[in-house]
Amino acid sequence: MANNESAEGKKLGVGGSLVYSSAQFGGNLLSMVFTSWILFFYTSPGKGGKVLVSMAIMGAALTVGRVVDAFYDPTIGYWSDNTKTRWGRRRPFIIFGTPIYVLSFILLFNPLLPAGSAGLAIFTVFLISVFWLAFTTVMGPYNALMPEIALTSDERVKISTLLAVMMLLATGYQGIAVPKLIEFYKAKYLAGLALPNLDHVSKSVIDEATRYGYAPACIITGILAFVTIFITAIFIKEKAHHAHEKYSVREAFSWTFKNKPFVIYIIASVFQYLGFSSLTAGIPFIVTALMKKPIGFVGTVYMYNIPSFVISFVLINILAKKVGKVRLYKFCLLILALLLPLLFFVGNPHLPIDPATAGIGLMVLLGFPISGNMILPTAILADIIDYDEKLTGMRREAIYFGMQGLLQKMANAMSQGMQAVLFGVFGYTAARHLGINLLGPVAGFFGFIGYIVFLYFPLDEKTKDLKVKA
User: Fold this and answer.
1) Residue 99: its pLDDT value, please?
2) What is 12-237+246-455's CATH number?
3) pLDDT at 7
4) For residues 11 and 43, what is the distance between their CA atoms, to the nearest angstrom?
5) In the prediction, which pLDDT does 469 show?
6) Which of 388, 338, 395 is nearest to 368 (CA)?
7) What is the pLDDT of residue 98?
8) Could you list the mean pLDDT of each consecutive 10-residue stretch along the chain, which spans 470 residues?
9) Would you list the domain boundaries of the chain?
10) Three-class SS of the chain
11) In the prediction, which pLDDT does 12 show?
12) How far is 20 from 234, CA to CA, in rounded Å?
């Protein structure tokens, strides 16, 4: 591959792979904590039973933030592909975007304006948009490094697995460490009140203590993310790229849709995201309303999931070599679509098992297909980018990741808006939770459409060329 001549075909190595994957942990840590906790944080009652921002406004804010960010995604990809500095094409975006990304995250969980005020609602909408724009500024160029660092299909699956491990660590942190940190600082808050009997503290005081716990927990999380992202920004070495013919952002956009494998891949991915994304933000509600457990039990759910993910990562690597990553991804899409509707039955009093056991059992079953969705798409997209180079003679990693980001984030925005509608119409509390149950069937329906679309994926992953029918 012409763009990697300076690398002399050398592999990244274990040390280099760890340095590169460090930002995967930090960069996705903040987005995971945000996605999993922001809606619960702002719409749960605090002192006096008052929420920070209403469910309707938060639904709109989350949708607006992702839509604004989605249209920014291919733009940052174009800029990154066409940037030329002594630091490389990608690192400047990571270095200058990270402080804004971290600061906006910390401010979101440390609201400076009164609960329920118009000022807080407006500032929250603005800050959510800033957060996602900064996320894309950092992670778009970062993701674009992978196809040029990993040169073969096996290397791409291995590095994609390491990236998935970092995602798993980030998932474990946000699912286990964050609730523990919240509970720890909640207890400190209550202890500081010097109340004579904590067993009879009013619900209003407990709610306010819980809200207080988010602030220090998210400051600690923000600092951790900053450090791990900068490990990559400082120590990763980009590979030299030859000058190529200039092209406009409009031309870059249109080229991606002339690439048939990309079109099939991204349509399938959009349907999968449209359904599945709402479930991530729904986990705190699933635990408290369906499983009938306190918020700290979210960590327990994730602890049960970790062995499932670890085993699945190993199986994905073995099976990808035997059957190919494209066939394996099709299988994961199908299994995910078939399992997700089972969420409808969690919390049903007629089930022969208790709600917590049913919920954990479903999460464990989802471990394998979710693992496939964590590992395989990045490796498949890298092959698609190689195919684009065969067609055009140019390396445009970031524009493909940018276009992917645009469409996936549009799907995320619609998914979060759909979640807000389901919750608002059908309920999201322990007494009225049909809106939460419906997340599963809706996600499964859209996921199945994604599976049907991906059946037509035409790229031969060995030759990086279109399959030819006999």
Assistant:
1) 96
2) 1.20.1250.20
3) 38
4) 48
5) 47
6) 338
7) 96
8) 40 78 92 87 79 86 80 80 79 93 95 87 91 92 79 73 85 85 85 63 70 89 96 81 59 79 93 79 84 81 84 89 91 94 89 89 91 86 85 75 80 80 86 90 93 92 66
9) 12-237+246-455
10) CHHHHHHCCCCCHHHHHHHHHHHHHHHHHHHHHHHHHHHHHHHCCCHHHCCCCCHHHHHHHHHHHHHHHHHHHHHHHHHHHCCCCCCCCCHHHHHHHHHHHHHHHHHHCCCCCCCCCHHHHHHHHHHHHHHHHHHHHHHHHHHHCHHHHCCCHHHHHHHHHHHHHHHHHHHHHHHHHHHHHHHHHHHHHHHHCCCCCHHHCCHHHHHHHHHHHHHHHHHHHHHHHHHHHHHHHHHCCCCCCCCCCCCCHHHHHHHHCCCHHHHHHHHHHHHHHHHHHHHHHHHHHHHHHHCCCCCCHHHHHHHHHHHHHHHHHHHHHHHHHHHCHHHHHHHHHHHHHHHHHHHHHCCCCCCCCCHHHHHHHHHHHCHHHHHHHHHHHHHHHHHHHHHHHHHHCCCCHHHHHHHHHHHHHHHHHHHHHHHHHHHHHHCCCCCCCHHHHCHHHHHHHHHHHHHHHHCCCCEECCCCEECCCC
11) 66
12) 10
Q: Which two tokens stand for residue 344?
A: 């409808």
